[in-house]
Amino acid sequence: MIELDAVTKTFPGAPTASVNAVSMVIPEGETVALIGPSGCGKTTTLRMINRLIEPTAGRIRVAGHDVTAGDPVTLRRTIGYVIQNVGLFPHMTVAENIAAVPRLLGWDAKRTDARVDEMLHLVGLDPAMRTRRPAALSGGQRQRVGVARALAADPPVMLMDEPFGAIDPIARTRLQDEFKAILRRVRKTVVMVTHDMEEALRMADRIAIMRNGELLQFDTPATILTSPADPFVDAFLGPDRAYRRLGLLTVDNLMTPASGTPGPALPSGTTLREALSTLITARADTARIVAPDGTVLGDLSRAAILAA
Length: 308
Prior knowledge:
It is a single chain. With 308 residues, the chain is α/β, with parallel strands linked by helices. The protein folds into two domains: 2-238, 3-Layer(aba) Sandwich (Rossmann fold); 249-307, CBS domain Like. 36% of the residues lie in helices and 23% in strands. It is built from 13 helices and 13 strands. It has a six-stranded mixed beta sheet, with helices on both faces. Strands 2-1-4-5 form a four-stranded antiparallel beta sheet, covered by helices on one side. Strand 7, helix 7 and strand 8 form a beta-alpha-beta unit. Helix 5 (109-122) packs across helix 6. The longest helix is centred in the middle third of the chain and has 18 residues, at 169-186. The protein starts with a strand and ends with a helix.
């Protein structure tokens, strides 16, 4: 869906390129996280995809089309864009914000109104919020409206620049999970910038780690955690990368038949990282894995997690 071929950006007067010959292929329906130290070129790379920044060299293709070949305004209307501080129009209502791009594309009022209702339902907002203005919403609600607006015209590609960075940690984790669930339903190709490795591991199918404008490693979270490309990537992941790997597997991967052993109950789908934390807190050696209706599905031991 998105191809970057030796994409380079050198700003006037800069001694070196901000982005240097970056190449990657992003399959349709995948979420890719761009991550690295401040100034590594991740945001510049993101903004070149929808031509908010023009590349100095190289080619960017979206769905096979060279993005530099047409009108940049038209291009941006076909790519959803979400930023950290949302960027909602303060003088517009929630409904008007969500309807902004469909109206620019010439949708009729009936179709636009139906799409607003559909988007509010998709992001879990009460239809009664249609008439509110952004100032009357919480940070999390504004972020949901921003996502709804980005999805309103049904773009195949979404760009997200630190989308959850301004939200408190508890709400951020919830929104991340909800957004992942939305993506499973609408199947979009997403490129997101983040400074948070935990967020990248939670959200992305593939992670691109950058430094000094160069792409150091582009792979799945599991591969990056088990096989860092170089000492910088290894250090960037931190000393707890073995613990982070447990966040990529669930209790269902290691569950054994139920034995009746007492222990804390863990829902099916719980990550091994959360399971290990629960067992340590409960000072227990075994947990019971349960279905949503409370049926015991099996057991999981602390020893099995550590072996994994």
